[in-house]
């Protein structure tokens, strides 16, 4: 986990695991409504239930900044990922392994999230074209399984960061991309697995993390609670 936040290695004395709740099938609870994160899990054969979290992101970050005085960019997305995981865990009936996620783009020393309007998306692309940025994707895991089912009560997280190199788009290309509506509701105003794919020249890091969920990182986190990623795979079809 990047510095500035506690959580890695916390156990049942920090957040008690749910007792007496049977394990779920599927076991993974995704605290996100992101189509990209859902697609990454589905393509990897991982079964999950989605329970999007209702979190006031501005209030969460303001509270964290008031407490710590400052937060590295990597820790800001981790703070939001944790808040989402905790909110979904609290809203569930218990017994899940809960995964929260959040992504933001670091560009020229500032963090940018979802543009939300066509005007903002267009302005960002005019600034980003031909340049490099760094996408931070925070992951937070809560083991809410019953201890009798191997639950640890652990709650911890880590951030995956990837360098993204943008093509030098023409004004017409920017206008056409914004008109698709895709960049309005995604971190950094771009995707790599949709209309925006042709406008990403290259990346340095995990391409899954650019979509919002790093599979190698998820594998390592699951190992911390004695689970293999294969434990989450959907059953093979009967021959």
UniProtKB/TrEMBL annotation:
It comes from Dermabacter vaginalis. Transmembrane segments: none annotated. It is found in: Cytoplasm. This is Nucleoside triphosphate pyrophosphatase. PANTHER family: BIFUNCTIONAL DTTP/UTP PYROPHOSPHATASE/METHYLTRANSFERASE PROTEIN-RELATED (PTHR43213), BIFUNCTIONAL DTTP_UTP PYROPHOSPHATASE_METHYLTRANSFERASE PROTEIN-RELATED (PTHR43213:SF5). Its cofactor is a divalent metal cation. Residues 1-24 are annotated as: Disordered. Keywords: Cytoplasm, Hydrolase, Nucleotide metabolism. HAMAP family: Maf. Its EC number is 3.6.1.9. One of its GO terms (molecular function) is nucleoside triphosphate diphosphatase activity. It catalyses: a ribonucleoside 5'-triphosphate + H2O = a ribonucleoside 5'-phosphate + diphosphate + H(+); a 2'-deoxyribonucleoside 5'-triphosphate + H2O = a 2'-deoxyribonucleoside 5'-phosphate + diphosphate + H(+). Nucleoside triphosphate pyrophosphatase. May have a dual role in cell division arrest and in preventing the incorporation of modified nucleotides into cellular nucleic acids. The active site is at residue 102. Its main location: cytoplasm.
């Amino acid at each position: 986990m990047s510095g500035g936040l506690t959580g890695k290695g916390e156990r049942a004395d920090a957040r008690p695991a749910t007792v007496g709740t049977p394990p779920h099938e599927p076991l993974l609870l995704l605290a996100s409504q992101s189509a990209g994160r859902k697609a990454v899990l589905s393509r990897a054969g991982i079964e999950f239930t989605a329970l999007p979290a209702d979190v006031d992101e501005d209030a969460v970050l303001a509270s964290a900044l008031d407490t710590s005085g400052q937060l590295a960019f990597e820790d800001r997305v981790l703070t939001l990922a944790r808040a989402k995981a905790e909110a979904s865990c609290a809203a569930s009936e218990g017994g899940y392994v809960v995964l929260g996620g959040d992504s933001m783009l670091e560009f020229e020393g500032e963090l940018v999230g979802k543009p939300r309007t066509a005007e903002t998306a267009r302005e960002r692309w005019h600034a980003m074209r031909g340049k490099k940025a760094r996408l931070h994707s925070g992951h937070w895991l809560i083991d809410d399984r019953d201890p009798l089912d191997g639950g640890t009560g652990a709650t911890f997280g880590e951030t995956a960061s990837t360098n993204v190199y943008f093509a030098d788009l023409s004004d017409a290309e920017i206008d056409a991309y914004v008109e698709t509506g895709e960049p309005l509701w995604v971190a950094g105003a771009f995707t790599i697995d949709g209309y925006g794919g042709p406008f990403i020249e290259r990346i340095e890091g995990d391409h899954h993390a650019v979509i919002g969920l790093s599979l190698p990182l998820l594998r390592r986190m699951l190992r911390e609670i004695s689970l293999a990623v294969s434990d989450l795979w959907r059953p093979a079809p009967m021959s």
